[in-house]
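Hey L., structure's done. Input below.
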Amino acid sequence: MKKISKADLSIKELVDLIQEDFLKTNNLIIDQISSEVDRIPELSKHIINLGGKRLRPILTIACAKMLGIKNNDHITLAAAVELLHTATLLHDDVVDESDFRRGKKTSHILWDNKSSILVGDYLLGKAFQLMVKTGSLECLKILSNAAAVIAEGEVLQLVAINNIDIKESDYMKIIEAKTAALFSSACEVGGIASSSSGETRKSLFSFGKNLGTAFQLTDDALDYSGSSDRLGKNIGDDFYDGKITLPVIIAYREGEEEQRNFWVDSFNKAERNPEDLDKANHLINQNEAIEKTLNLANNYGKKAKRDLSKFPDTPIKTGLINLVDFSSIRDH
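Output:
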């Protein structure tokens, strides 16, 4: 029997608190991928059924319910957030040339690049239809801005591929755009749906941004130190793909000349091999780059908890605090 990690347990506890609305959101997502063009539901169901944790729609629902929402707009918005996220995953897999996601073949491998891109566009369109359905121009503005920022982050990362001289500040811009932008927007629209004040929305936005940043920092650390089962991708994928993440930035910055030469040579190669990865892991461990990355993730987690401290104590707030711990620690 597969062991349930603390990460999965923290998410399950939060989902249990929002179970009815979470199920309604899932049903709405399934409704949105129906089409007379068979490939659209086939390909969409494949990526949706890969078993992602649904963190972003969970955040929208939880934030709205924590603030006492009186209608179902949060369900519509949560579904829109997840469809937007799913669309970016389809596009990402094509750009990254990824063969697997969560241990299963990616959509562009099972079908083709064109199908993945076009179905991603379809899901993006359905997400915007749901945003419009709420009648909230503010939510439409926030989520459409997030979509643009995510795309901008992807381009920034693409430009930075194999660039071992990337600055830590530029790396942070990438993860804030690629990951934190949708986390923060998912939280903020939950506040809008519950008719919250501007100050409350700012706190939710900040919470989501700090949570998303902690989540991505931890994810990048686990790519060199975690388990494939826990991570949902192969260990070392970032290294093989030429993505310069914080563990590498730290190891390169703090390494001796011989070590720095290794990093330069590795990322000047067209392809890296398992021996290169073993050496990379050795240098990352030698320079304590994983610990330093996780310490930074923990700092962002503390900021996220401070953002939540402004809200009354409720079971959902406690669930969100536990989710912060998962995002900035997670199981190795």
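The beta strands are 100-101, 104-105. The mean pLDDT is 91.

-- N.
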